[in-house]
Design a protein that fits this description.
By secondary structure, the protein is of the alpha/beta class. The chain contains 16 helices and twelve strands. The longest helix has 23 residues.
Length: 448
């Protein structure tokens, strides 16, 4: 991949006190061939003879810098891919050893995203012993999961994922689930949500799938999917892929799951988008980049040490440099990266700036801003109808849970409050009938 040096502005940059890096030790390589995956084709950005496994010297430099260049007491490493289990358990034993070597008294956490198909007892024992938090990718029950999530031979993977989940449970590994919401499973929200609860997921992430077919810019470097629109206006109007979720359907998906969750599962099941929304309603910030006013502190590190502005912006023009010859902290705080983050706020169209739910949405991810506003201004998020519907729907519930929290009461009390209001007790036999007939209840609706 062509190098674009950010050394000049990095040297003058202001290091953020904390930043997050999504680390890809195996690059884009994976043992699956998920039909909707946007990252598999990133292999085309590297030389044909590339060895995608992270070298020991790159790993050591990364661990040392990632810990040493942040001014916070707790550090979280995030390992993704591709499929990180392809690196083998010994690689991650080396990771843990390096974290202890360079820990400097910090508390170190590890998050590990996997498709689960290669997990065995060796992995289970290691992940449990070292207290890794595992994110397991599963898109719902077998019929929904296997539509897109297949292996290199086009075979279904649901059974192997469930075997991997059994390994995690056997060894007591803490896990959450990540569900890609696509054109198919978005039409069956209740089924997806109840399935995730049935398999024991107490922490659920929903990721809306939105991809477009490549135009001239992406196609020129061998990619089939479009680059982010804000920097390639010439590609405006490119078609959305057939597996992408429809905006209206995604709104319905979130609303239907929320309505079940808020009545039955508050405090028992944690759904990331609901938790983030509550944080924004209370004015605390949600802590998730897509719903934050600005972004830029969630970067992506490739196997060879190349650092990029974001996991969704792994393209040559967003390469900040390489950790083998540049400081990780300086690149994270460079002028280029700070502008990348502030552009999220500054590029919002007027339609978004006056929106009643802007405080909860903030225009979501810039990657999805390829639509025109009703006034014809560019930069509207494809998922805008979904978020308008969802955030307006949850407003009274979020206000109520916020009031409970401010009164030092548990948000889960909302379930009892809703039950009492939606299922009031029947009136006494001699009370006026609530139907408005003027008769006593026992002589009116009570007869039925």
């Amino acid at each position: 991949m062509p190098a674009i040096s950010r050394q000049n502005d990095a040297a003058q940059g202001m290091r953020p006190p904390a930043f997050h890096v999504m680390t890809k030790p195996i690059g884009p390589l994976c043992n699956l061939d998920c039909k909707y995956c946007f990252y598999l084709e990133k292999e085309n950005l590297f030389p044909s003879n590339e060895n995608f496994k992270m070298r020991d010297d790159v790993l050591e430099s990364y661990v040392r810098q990632y810990i040493g260049e942040q001014a916070v007491p707790e550090i979280t490493f995030a390992w993704q891919g591709g499929e990180p289990t392809l690196m083998g358990v010994d690689f991650f034993r080396r990771v843990v050893a390096l974290q202890k070597q360079y820990g400097e008294g910090r508390t170190i956490h590890n998050a590990f995203q996997t498709n689960g198909t290669l997990l065995d007892d060796s992995w289970g024992a290691f992940l449990s012993e070292n207290r890794f938090l595992v994110g397991l990718s599963v898109d719902g029950p077998a019929a929904l999961h296997d539509t897109y999530r297949v292996d290199k031979g086009g075979r279904p993977t649901f059974g192997k994922v469930m075997d991997g989940l059994a390994v995690l449970k056997k060894h007591g590994v803490e896990f959450n689930t990540l569900t890609v919401v696509n054109r198919l499973n978005s039409a069956r929200p209740g089924e997806v949500y109840r399935f995730l609860k049935e398999i024991g997921s107490g922490f659920i992430q929903f990721i809306p799938l939105v991809e477009r077919r490549a135009g001239a810019v992406a196609g020129a470097i061998g990619l089939g999917l479009a680059q982010p629109p804000a920097h390639h206006a010439i590609d405006a109007g490119l078609p959305v892929t057939e597996w992408s979720v429809e905006a209206g359907q995604y709104g319905t998906f979130l609303v239907e799951i929320f309505d079940e969750w808020v009545r039955h599962d508050v405090g028992r099941v944690f759904v990331q988008v609901f938790d983030v929304a509550l944080g924004n309603w209370m004015g605390l910030g949600g802590g998730l980049c897509v719903f934050s006013e600005k972004c830029g502190t969630a970067l992506a590190l490739e196997h060879n040490g190349d650092l990029f502005s974001c996991d969704h912006y792994v393209y040559p023009e967003f390469k900040l440099g390489n950790i083998m010859n540049q400081s990780l902290g300086d690149m994270a705080g460079s002028e280029f990266q700070r502008k990348f983050g502030s552009d999220k706020k500054n590029s919002l169209p007027a339609y978004c700036r006056r929106c009643e739910v802007r405080f909860a949405c903030h225009g979501e991810c810039p990657k999805h801003r390829f639509m025109l506003t009703p006034e014809g201004e560019p930069g509207l998020n494809y998922l805008c109808p979904a978020y308008k519907k969802f955030f307006n729907h949850i407003d009274p519930f979020m206000r109520l849970m916020g009031d409970l929290l401010n009164a030092r009461r548990a948000p889960a009390e909302i379930m009892q409050i809703l039950h009492r209001s939606e299922h009031p007790p029947a009136p006494g036999p001699n009370h006026r009938c609530p139907c408005g007939s003027g008769k006593r209840y026992k002589r009116c609706c009570g007869k039925r």
